[in-house]
Each structure stands twice: as structure tokens, then as C-alpha cells.
């Protein structure tokens, strides 16, 4: 176990839980990349932090908890839970997420989150919509496109 990198992961999620964007940003390398099932690939600290700013700006924010943090010299992992209300539908979401990290220069240079898109869509959109459509690639592409447009709009307005 690399205590310094494990501490970096814990610091990131502690800052996230406090909605402390400045402290979150200090955990990231300037050349950080982020990916998840919705935001497939974001490059650079400004875009990655723009996504976190947008997500934390929603009504009610996001409740964050982390567990199972592990880290070695160059990589690490954690499991985290996000609890929030999905803005488009007002439905509560509890998303269980596995995160993988790469480290460079004592900072997070790669952050990849993985979660069950089908499960998320049922919670966020409800069973009539999320159940049948959460399985299709067209639906996933639609959600991804909306998310990227929302991020671009949010960053332009910021």
C-alpha cells in the first residue's frame, strides 16, 4: 500500500463530500483525464473540474462516501457512493461507483469511474423509461450527448 497515494484519494473524496472544488482540483494533475459511462473521456483539469462543478451545482448537491481505498506507486482504486436527485426527473439516485486512478508527480493523472448504466437509468429515469431504454446503445448515446452539451453550456456560462 502506498500511503501517500491512498491519502490523495481520500483527500479527493473528503473534498468532494464537502463540495470543496478548490481542494478537489489540487488533487488533479494539470493533464488529468477522466472517463465514466456518461462522460466517456474528458481531457485536462479545466474540463474535468468543469464536470465536477456542474454536478455539484445541482439542487441538493451530492452526498459522497468512499470505502475500499487501495493504492500502489502508480495506480489505485476506491469504491464510492453518490447520492443525489437527478435534475431532469427529480428522482433520487444512489449510484455505486468503482474508481481507478493513475498517479504522476504526486497527483491524480487518470481517473476512471465505472458504474452500472442500466441500474442508474432505472433510478434516474424511472422504470417506464429507464428499464427498456437503459439497455440500448442509442439511449446511452443520447444521454452522453445531452451530458456533453450540458457541460459545454455550463462551462460557457461560467
TrEMBL record:
This is Nuclear transport factor 2 family protein. It comes from Streptosporangium jomthongense. SUPFAM superfamilies: NTF2-like (SSF54427). InterPro entries: NTF2-like_dom_sf, SnoaL-like. It comes from the Bacteria. Residues 10-111 form the SnoaL-like domain.
